[in-house]
Amino acid sequence: MQHVEVTQIIPAPLQAVWNRYNDHRSWGQWAGLGEATLAREGDPPPNGVGCVRVFTNAGIVKVHEEVVAFEPPTRMAYRLVKGGPGLRDHLGEAIFTPHDGGTLITWRCQFNSKIPGMGGVLRWFITRLFRNALAGLARDMARP
Predict the structure, then answer these.
(1) pLDDT, tens digit, for every residue of 130-139?
(2) Is the per-residue pLDDT at 144 higher than 80?
(3) Whole-model pTM above 0.70?
(4) 61 has a pLDDT exceeding 80
(5) Nearest CA to 19 among 108, 137, 136, 126?
(6) Domain containing 43 — which CATH number?
(7) CA of 37: how far to CAs of 62, 94, 131, 142, in Å?
(8) How far apart are CA 124 and CA 17, in angstroms?
(9) Would strands 75-83 and 60-71 be described as parallel, antiparallel, or unpaired?
(10) Could you report the per-residue pLDDT of 9-40, keeping only the tens digit for each?
């Protein structure tokens, strides 16, 4: 089992950061993961438990993720249900904590590699992806 954990402090109120991060359709504007759409709304609508978010890049479906925990404004967890080449048993979560007038996000996941010996490479790739996405969120939240 591989583990990834990335943190980012965002100088914005907890509720505002929670709202932006969990507006799954907005990810295409700040996360650097391509276009984000919802294949299914969750409870509460649209982004809660059961929501399936789909990330595409250049028109090719890459990843389907289902929200499995939605605890406003502190925790959201998801699992990979389709896509994610080389990944198996991917489970992730984002934790939101007040921090010095802003918000600390801790984004972590665990997964197995479908390909023996590739876990470290996948861990490096996901770590970079998480860091870039959270840096994009910080930039987005800093815009007037």
Answers:
(1) 999 999 999 9
(2) no
(3) yes
(4) no
(5) 137
(6) 3.30.530.20
(7) 12, 19, 21, 24
(8) 26
(9) antiparallel
(10) 999 999 999 999 999 999 989 998 889 999 99
- 63: pLDDT strictly greater than 80: yes
What's the angle, vertex CA 24, arms to CA 53 and CA 45, rounded to 5? 85
Q: Report the length, in residues, of the chain.
A: 144
Closest residue by Cα to residue 22 from 43, 42, 3, 48:
48
Where in the sequence is the domain holding 122, given as residue range(s)? 2-142
Sheet strands side by side (includes 2-10): 2-10, 102-113, 87-99, 75-83, 60-71, 52-57, 35-40
Which of 72, 16, 1 is CA-nearest to residue 42? Answer: 72
Cis peptide before 144 (omega within 30 of 0): no
